[in-house]
Amino acid sequence: MSVMVESDTAITARKSLPVCVVDDDADQVELTATRLEKAGFPVTGTTDPQEALQRVRMGGYRVVLADLKMPAMDGLTFLDKTLEYDPGTYVILITGYYSVDSAIEAIKRGAYDYLCKPLDFLRLEKALDDLATVFSQRSEVRGLEEKLLQNVQFEGIVGRSPAMLEVFDLARKVARHYSNVLVTGPTGAGKELVARALHRLSPVAQERFAICNCSALVDTLLESQLFGHVRGSFTGASDTRPGLFEYANGGTVFLDEIGETSPQVQAKLLRVIHNREIQRVGSPEVRKVDVRLIAATNRDLRAEVLTGRFREDLFYRLSSIEIRVPGLSERPEDIPMLVQHFLKKYSQAYGKRLQGLTRRAQLVLLRHDWPGNVRELENVISSAAITANTDFIDVGDLPPHLQKPLGRTVPAGENWRPLPLDEVRKIHIQRVLELCKGNRVRAAQTLGIGRTSLYRFLKRSEKKAAAAKEGV
Ligand SMILES: Nc1ncnc2c1ncn2[C@@H]1O[C@H](COP(=O)(O)OP(=O)(O)OP(=O)(O)O)[C@@H](O)[C@H]1O
Ligand SMILES: [Mg+2]
User: Fold this and answer.
1) Domain 409-472 fold
2) Is the minimum distance from the CB of 158 to ligand 1 under 6 angstroms?
3) Which residues are registered as beta bridge partners of 269?
4) 229 lines ligand 1 (CB under 6 A)
5) Would you say the pTM of this structure is higher than 0.85?
6) To 10 degrees, what angle do helices 191-200 and 162-175 make?
7) Which CATH class is domain 163-326?
8) CA of 256 to the centre of ligand 2 (A)
9) What is the whole-number distance in angstroms between the Cα of residue 20 and the centre of ligand 1?
């Protein structure tokens, strides 16, 4: 019985291993194809290497058996091209002129095996069965990973590192009781996701969750956005409007980038926290609001307090509960699961059937230090998902700066000079732009900053350069 089950499994595994046979000798193609078909493998044969490559490019094969000496294209060139088109394909080269040296050369160049003519079909079937087992094990692992992925999510936030499990734990505990929470961490680490999770798990989840990006507006507009205004209170205030605090009354207000607020706004926020009271701009009337407040920042607010840029009392009120979301370089063990999560997301979005990354592409991702954190990783996977023309993302689909990694730190070698920070920033941005071949969107992603920030910076540098020229 167990033998029966085993052979059933083997037959199923063979069925899912499509093989392409290419040889300039039509009889050889016919013989091999018939034999392998009988053994249960789906086979296509051709005498034209170009046609075989075309098929590989379309992604239909797992294994290609190729003759080493073909007049139209020699087997080693065929091997290179196949691996270029689809690095996930296994190529078995077949030759009538076997030598150990040529076998080693072929394996070094990426061939899976090297067999001699006349073909020993038992050996060939054994090699193919081994591969079929590898593939079925892999798909089993993928199934398990898929299940695991479902279990390593907290409210849509993927993470299995101890640092993230701590974040999830704290968020779960805090969500039911908080009135003010401070979420800190570097850009793109997932602060907004944590804020949304806090709201969803809070008793006011059915109420509104209103977001205000404090760095996007000048002071007067920010105040009016938060607290509302009455008609005529400033130029352009043509009607009376409630602000976010009133809009989200009963729910949650998320103040993003709170470190960017002016002392004036900070004073007003302190009042909201103390008394849960607001005044619309231009109105003496004091209104009560019942809101939960989540603030986020990627700045070191303690340092900002020390330099006097952030109010100490506001900081202490806000940070009585602080959730710190660690950057990706502090939790590299989360990278594989995040990659899988984004692969699934973008495979679906672009209607592809991406299975994973080649081993060398995985290594490149693990070596990178992700200054733009999860957002940068998401961008990398989403653009690779667009360019990948096989089921596996390869190094060539990754942005150029990852393929040729920049030094992690400025080497304190001969070229090092104690430059002002502004200068270092300028040089760094220029280098990244060069690596991205002038593509500003990609450069901004790499730098982990918004596109508008990059444009602003470039405009400022142009102005400075022009002014310097005029000065000469
Ligand atoms: N752990 C995670 N699992 C899944 N997606 C994540 C995770 N962390 C971040 N993301 C995704 O990365 C992107 C950036 O996350 P988010 O906006 O929460 O970062 P942030 O810390 O608020 O960044 P910033 O400081 O720049 O505002 C979003 O698209 C988000 O969905
Ligand atoms: Mg954010």
Assistant:
1) Arc Repressor Mutant, subunit A (1.10.10)
2) yes
3) none
4) no
5) no
6) 40
7) alpha beta
8) 6
9) 44
